[in-house]
């Protein structure tokens, strides 16, 4: 059974078909530098009394690659659901490039491409048909849709699979197909909800390249992910949501700079001793017989570490910075009382 895209209803599809190219007109209209997304005092209380969002306010600039992070149950899914018009808000407002989603829902949704975490296309359709039919819901003429589908399937490295049944695709291919489908309407804002969940690291990094290409072409991207390395590598700005409130937001570099510790991984010549030296203020852990983890205060002189290691007979062959700084920041900000007790 085929799936209707977000915001596409029969009436709307008919209206779009009657005005082919309307999506391009909306996309190319001057933005006057309004944010790609503006959320103001957004609140959501479900019927069972659960207050999922407690006055969230957030701006995402046009052209940004933005990470929305938070633990399970923090309010991410509700926020994304409201922005993509799948969940009704209780109060507050959401604007997509200045278009209010409540007053002008159809116009706002035509500016958005959504890649949900769950696969929601017909597994018995061919990738080419999935893309062309999706574009048709938004009034894209078939000739244009076929041209776009070729472009997007090639970008997703799926052109050779265009005429195969989608159920035969690997998990990573299906994920890439979801992104290709979302790009068929040439959205100005692309929302990705856990786009690389369940795929291996090689496929994940290939998808990173595709997303960076999409962003470089001018599409604003909002990413939710539990792979914090992914967010740190891709995103320039971020917000962390917890218990329905934004607890931190700003440029990635600025937030990471607030960490008062820094971490290094040292590769050593020769095996590490059974007992590691004690260095006041620093934490040393052996990853294996030849790899040492060090966490140390930012103000500590690294030479002090090397002198202590040398005195203990540990010779350092190479050093690299840990890549889990965002994870450290995230854990500190979202730690539950029972976790820190």
UniProtKB/TrEMBL annotation:
<feature type="region of interest" description="Disordered">
    <location>
        <begin position="1"/>
        <end position="30"/>
    </location>
</feature>
<dbReference type="InterPro" id="IPR050763">
    <property type="entry name" value="ABC_transporter_ATP-binding"/>
</dbReference>
<dbReference type="InterPro" id="IPR003439">
    <property type="entry name" value="ABC_transporter-like_ATP-bd"/>
</dbReference>
<feature type="domain" description="ABC transporter">
    <location>
        <begin position="37"/>
        <end position="268"/>
    </location>
</feature>
<protein>
    <submittedName>
        <fullName>ABC transporter ATP-binding protein</fullName>
    </submittedName>
</protein>
<keyword id="KW-0547">Nucleotide-binding</keyword>
<dbReference type="InterPro" id="IPR027417">
    <property type="entry name" value="P-loop_NTPase"/>
</dbReference>
<dbReference type="Pfam" id="PF00005">
    <property type="entry name" value="ABC_tran"/>
</dbReference>
<keyword id="KW-0813">Transport</keyword>
<dbReference type="InterPro" id="IPR017871">
    <property type="entry name" value="ABC_transporter-like_CS"/>
</dbReference>
<dbReference type="GO" id="GO:0005524">
    <property type="term" value="F:ATP binding"/>
</dbReference>
<keyword id="KW-0067">ATP-binding</keyword>
<dbReference type="InterPro" id="IPR003593">
    <property type="entry name" value="AAA+_ATPase"/>
</dbReference>
């Amino acid at each position: 059974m085929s799936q209707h895209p977000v915001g596409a209803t029969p009436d709307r599809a008919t209206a779009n078909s009657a005005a082919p190219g309307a999506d391009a007109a909306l996309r190319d209209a001057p933005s006057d530098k309004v944010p790609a997304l503006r959320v103001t005092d957004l609140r959501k209380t479900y019927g069972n009394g659960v207050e999922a969002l407690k006055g969230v306010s957030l701006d995402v600039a046009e052209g940004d690659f933005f990470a929305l992070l938070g633990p399970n149950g923090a309010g991410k899914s509700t926020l994304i659901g409201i922005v993509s018009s799948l969940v009704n808000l209780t109060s507050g407002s959401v604007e997509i490039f200045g278009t209010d989603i409540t007053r002008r829902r159809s116009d706002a949704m035509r500016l958005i491409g959504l890649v949900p975490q769950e696969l929601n296309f017909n597994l018995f359709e061919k990738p080419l048909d999935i893309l062309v039919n999706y574009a048709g819901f938004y009034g894209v003429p078939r000739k244009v849709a076929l041209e776009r589908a070729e472009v997007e399937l090639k970008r997703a490295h799926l052109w050779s699979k265009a005429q195969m049944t989608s159920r035969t695709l690997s998990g990573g291919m299906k994920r890439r197909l979801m992104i290709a489908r979302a790009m068929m309407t040439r959205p100005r804002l692309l929302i990705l909800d856990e786009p690389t969940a369940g795929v291996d690291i090689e496929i994940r990094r290939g998808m990173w390249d595709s997303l960076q290409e999409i962003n470089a072409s001018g599409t604003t991207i909002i990413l939710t992910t539990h792979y914090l390395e992914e967010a740190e590598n891709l995103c320039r700005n971020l917000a962390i949501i917890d218990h329905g409130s934004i607890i931190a937001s700003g440029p990635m570099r600025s937030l990471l700079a607030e960490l008062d510790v820094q971490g290094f991984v040292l590769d050593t010549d020769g095996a590490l001793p059974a007992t590691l030296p004690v260095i006041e203020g620093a934490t040393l852990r052996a990853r294996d017989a030849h790899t040492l983890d060090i966490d140390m205060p930012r103000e500590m002189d690294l030479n002090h570490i090397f002198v202590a290691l040398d005195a203990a007979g540990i010779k350092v062959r190479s050093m690299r910075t840990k890549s889990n700084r965002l994870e450290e920041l995230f854990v500190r900000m979202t730690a539950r009382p029972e976790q820190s007790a």
